[in-house]
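Per your request, structure below.
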């Protein structure tokens, strides 16, 4: 069968109304890779509404030639469609090619679309060269204290991935005059000290430490506060575009 017929069939299958059929089509494309599928899979990533199908599209792409997939995905990072950017970043993070670090621009790290920014934080933290770790942490620190609980969790986990080179930026934010920034930084520092701890527990711990700091005749920060305890495991997967 000619490549044109194969890709037309895949495209039609990925446009079906039934999400379970689209899931199967994406699975089949990954099970029997064909370079001709790459463009179709990338195109579908930008518009697929179902979380699980998007996850399978990314899996299918990781089953293809990484060089060809990266070449197809990088242009998506400049797309006007947020889902194309976020899913492209997510797929790059799964491929894990260090050469793609340069594709994660400041514009993506500070994208006005939260799903895109979160995907960029994860991808950058996983791909950053050692020499750039402290600079990346400094760039991400401007987002401390912002967003909902899932956004804050994502950012804290990015700092954990960056490692010790992120500590200076987090420590500086822990002294911020902005209480939201301060508490988030304290929670992030607790998570860096114990990556297996749950984020909610780390936040509760940070709030206690912050309250002690502001109390009259407060003891040294963290001396009497209980350490954070693990909470339920976080869900992982494609960003919520």
């Amino acid at each position: 069968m000619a490549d044109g017929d194969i890709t037309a069939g895949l495209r039609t299958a990925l446009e079906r109304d039934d999400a379970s059929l689209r899931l199967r089509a994406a699975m089949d494309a990954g099970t029997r890779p064909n370079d001709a599928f790459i463009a179709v899979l990338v195109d579908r990533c930008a518009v697929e509404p179902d979380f699980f199908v998007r996850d399978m599209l990314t899996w299918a792409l990781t089953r293809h030639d990484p060089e060809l997939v990266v070449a197809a995905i990088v242009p998506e990072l400049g797309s006007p469609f947020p889902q194309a950017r976020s899913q492209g970043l997510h797929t790059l993070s799964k491929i894990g090619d260090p050469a793609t670090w340069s594709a994660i621009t400041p514009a993506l790290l500070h994208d006005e679309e939260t799903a895109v920014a979160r995907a960029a934080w994860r991808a950058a933290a996983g791909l950053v060269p050692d020499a750039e770790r402290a600079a990346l942490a400094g760039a991400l620190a401007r987002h401390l204290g912002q967003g909902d609980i899932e956004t804050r969790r994502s950012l804290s986990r990015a700092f954990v991935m960056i490692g010790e080179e992120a500590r200076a930026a987090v420590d500086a934010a822990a002294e911020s005059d902005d209480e939201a920034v301060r508490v988030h930084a304290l929670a992030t520092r607790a998570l860096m000290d114990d990556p297996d701890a749950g984020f909610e527990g780390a936040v509760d711990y940070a709030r206690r430490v912050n309250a002690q700091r502001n109390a009259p005749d407060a003891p040294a920060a963290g001396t009497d506060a209980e350490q954070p305890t693990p909470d339920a495991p976080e869900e992982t997967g494609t960003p919520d575009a």
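The two ends are 35 Å apart (CA to CA).

Regards,
D.
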